[in-house]
Design a protein that fits this description.
With about 120 residues, the chain is mostly beta strands. The protein contains no helices and ten strands. Strands 2-10-9-4-5-6 form a six-stranded mixed sheet, with no helix packed on it. Strand 4 and strand 5 form a beta hairpin. The termini are far apart.
Length: about 120
């Protein structure tokens, strides 16, 4: 069974930065999977934020392009999301999963951007 454990969330002021981590475990064959970060803001549907292929090609939602950077460490089965220039619209619970996503999700990491 695949599990994802997200960490690194918190409260940050507008303009600040955070780095999220996501550790995967179980039979995921991590190194060959395309991975992604998703987020769900209050009252909204979950959306794709950033993706990274097994070959390390990346893509981003227009709303985060130029501010967020996704990366991966296959030896640690870990995906990262560096978030800079955060604004209140980035407030959400952030999840990682493969791309396309499994039905199983972790608990997520809450990011709150507020002054």
């Amino acid at each position: 069974q695949v599990q994802f454990v997200e960490s690194g969330g918190g409260l940050v002021q507008p303009g600040g930065s955070l780095r999220l981590s996501c550790a995967a475990s179980g039979s995921i064959f991590f190194s060959i999977r395309d991975m992604a970060w998703y987020r769900q803001a209050p009252g909204k549907q979950r959306e794709l934020v950033a993706g990274i292929t097994s070959g390390r090609s990346t893509n981003y939602a227009d709303s985060v392009k130029g501010r967020f950077t996704i990366s991966r460490d296959d030896a640690r089965k870990t995906v990262y999301l560096q978030m800079n220039s955060l604004n209140p619209e980035d407030t959400a619970v952030y999840y990682c999963n493969k791309l396309p996503a499994y039905d199983t999700w972790g608990k997520g990491a809450l990011v709150t951007v507020s002054s």
